[in-house]
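Listing S7. Sequence submitted for prediction.
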Amino acid sequence: MLPETLYYIGISQALFVAFVLLTKKDKQGSDYILLVWLLTISFKMMVLLISVEHGEFFDNQFSIGLIPLTFGPFLFLYTKYLLYRRWFFKNRDFLHFVPFIVFTFLYFSFFREKLSFDTHKLLLTDGYVVARLLYSFAFLGSVSYYTFLTLQILQRHRKRLQDRFSFLSESNELNWLYVLTAIFSLTYFVYFALGLYNVVTNQAYFDIAYTSDIFLTILAFSVSYFGIKQPYLFKVVPEEKEDYNESRESNEQKEKYKNSNLSEEQKEEYIEHIYSFMQTERPFLNAELTVQDLSKQLNISRHHLTEILNNDIGKNFFTFINEYRVEEVKRRLLDERFEHLTIVAIAFESGFNSKSTFNSIFKQNTGSTPSQWKAEALKK
C-alpha cells in the first residue's frame, strides 16, 4: 500500500468519527477528549500526506517524533473521564501534556533541521546522540507510563464493581477499554522493537515511520470503533464523584469506615430495614440492580449502605444480592409451578442476566451445579 493511500484512509476515518462525535447529543467529557485525539491523529497524518504529495508542509519530524507523545495522555484521560463522568478539564490534567510541550519547545528552539527520528541514526556520532536518546526514552517512557496508568485505573474500577453492581456485563466490565489499551501499547512496542533492530544493524531495514503509521491507522480505527460502539456506561453505572487520586481504597474495610458517623443504634435499624425490604419487595429480581438503585429504594445514602454491607453484614453488594437470587432459584427449582421452565429460564426470572455468571455463583454458594442440587434436594 502506498503511503499516501494509507494517510487518506487514516485521515478520512479520523475526521468522519470526529464529525460523528461532534454532532452527538448528550456528549460527555470523554467524547470531547476522543474528538481531540482523533483530530490530532488526522493532523499528524495530514502533515505526512502533504509532505509526500507536495513536499514538506510543516515539519515531518514533529509529526513523526513529537505528536505521538500526546497519545498516551489522551488514552488515560479518555478512560479517566469516562469512568468518573467528567465534562471539563481540571488544571492538573493539562500537566499530562507538559512533556510534549517541553520537548516540542526544545526541538523547535535548538534541534530543528538537525535532529532526525530515524532509528538507524540513533547512535550516529554527530553531536546530537544525547538528544536523540533523550527523545527516544521520553517516547518509550510515555507509552509505558500511560499504559500502566490506564490499566491501573481500569483495575481499580474492576475492584469496585462488586460494591456497585449486582451483575457483571460488557457495559460495566469495560473489556473494550482493555482491548483499546492493548492495541495502543502493542502498536508502539512493535514500533520500538523494529526501531531497536534498525539500531543494532545500523541500517534502515524497517521503515518504522511507515510501519508506525500502519499501526496508527489501526489504532485510529480501533479508537473510532470502540468510541462509538461503547455501551452507554452511565445508564447503568452510578455517577462516580470521587477523584482518581482520591479514590484509593483501604486494604481493610474497617479502616475505610473507621470514621463512620453512624451510631450502633442507627446501624441496627438500617440492617433490619435492609433485610425486611429484601424479603418483602424483592429488589434482587431486577437483573440490572445497582447499589444506587437500592440506596434510593431504601432511602439510605449509598455510602452508608455500602458501609453497612461491607462492615456490618460482611458482604459486598454483588455477593449480598446474588445470594438472594440463588435462594430464589432454589425455591423455584422445587416449586411445581415452575416445572415447565428450564433452569436457565428460572435463573433469569430470579434476577440473573448471564448463564455463566449464574452457574458460577450457584456453585460457589451451594458447592454443586443447579441440576445436581435439584436432584439431591428432591431425594430428601
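Caption to Listing S7: primary sequence and predicted C-alpha cells for the chain studied. Confidence is low (pLDDT under 50) at residues 232-254. The chain has two domains: 3-237, 261-379.
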